[in-house]
Amino acid sequence: MKFLSKRVCDYTSFHSDLDSTKHGRSSGGVSLFIHNSLATHVQFYQFHSSRILSVDLFFKGNVKLRIFVVYIPPTNDLVLRYEVIDQLISLISQTSSQNFHYAICGDFNMNLEKFYPIFLHQLQVAAKRIHKLFHYLLSHNYEDCTPLNLSSTLGTYHHLDTITRIDFVWSCPLLRRYMLTSTIFNAYDLHISDHNLIITYFDASLLSDAIKSAHAHQLCQQWTAFAIDLDKLCPIDPLVFDAWPLNQKCEYLHSRIIKAAKSQLPSITVGNTYALKKPKYLESLCQSYRFLSKVAKTIRSLHKNPTLYSVSFESKWSSYYIRLNQLLFSYKQIFVTPIVLPPSLRDE
């Protein structure tokens, strides 16, 4: 994995150390790759053993996300297997009391499909030590999203002719409501591993919901502080206040409300660069009025002094003529008698 991490430049990797003790057959070693756009949110990571790694990400709105990566040893070493399971249950039990959204992912070396019938119909057997981890997760409302393309020919683990699903992404009760779907990426033909990838999708509203909730909580606190401060600023006896004229009451309350608001509520200074805009229909009417005034001024000028007439006026009138007819058509419902304009000033 450390070899791979040097070649995946868009991701930041976190690793646990390998186990150098007597458990040589299962040396462990787990890794987590986080895209660099999210890696900046990593606040803390810890490998609790060579087989359990946790990474904490903190987001706005006091959203805390913890990702556990685990490797449960196979059944050929039950002592080590139970040791890792007990440690994992202890860690997720502690995490559940710390207001984290968290997921547990990795190679569990357990077949969930075989355990489901036992959990549903043989409660005493399901509670036995051999099933301890799955029993704990299902009993505490954790959820693994069954991949959409899971089938008898596509699982997460291939060995000889055996195809099973022993790799999982479990979501805690807080996180599971944001879980959308899951699918298996078939890497068998790539010959890079006997395991396939599980891709689980979560709704991004996990972050926005928490921010909205945090803002609402903050606003509630601000309004409470505002109300307390306002009460302190209004120590007047109710009987005295009731005897005041209405204007005096309004001035008294207005001044104290403003003072309390400035002290406790957030404020934004708005500049005076805003330009008032007319409605489109009113702006169009104003433009038409200015145009008609311009045409009327030209015609009055010619009536007073006909000697000013020239070819340039005919050119102006030709452009006026087109626009005037457009206006007449737009307002034709207003005019009772149809208006016919001369095509040239000579005709006038």
Q: Which SSEs are present, and which pair or pack?
A:
Blueprint: H1 2-5, E1 11-15, E2 31-35, H2 36-39, E3 42-49, E4 52-59, E5 63-71, H3 78-96, E6 101-107, H4 112-121, H5 123-126, H6 132-139, E7 143-144, E8 157-159, E9 162-164, E10 167-171, H7 173-176, E11 179-185, E12 197-202, H8 205-233, H9 238-243, H10 246-264, H11 280-304, H12 311-330
Helix pairs in contact: 8-10
User: What portion of residues belong to β-strands?
Assistant: 15-25%
Q: Which stretches are poorly predicted, pLDDT < 50 over at least 5 residues? A: none
The CATH homologous superfamily of the largest domain is termed Endonuclease/exonuclease/phosphatase
- Apparent shape: elongated
Mean pLDDT: 83
- The strand line-up of the biggest sheet is 3-4-5-6-10-7
Portion in helices:
40-55%
The total of helices stands at 12
The helix/strand series, from N terminus to C terminus, equals HEEHEEEHEHHHEEEEHEEHHHHH
Q: Into how many domains do the coordinates divide?
A: 3
- Count of individual beta strands: 12
- What CATH architecture label of the largest domain applies? 4-Layer Sandwich
Examine the coordinates and then state which fold CATH places here, giving the name of the CATH topology of the largest domain: Deoxyribonuclease I, Chain A
CATH class assignment of the largest domain = Alpha Beta
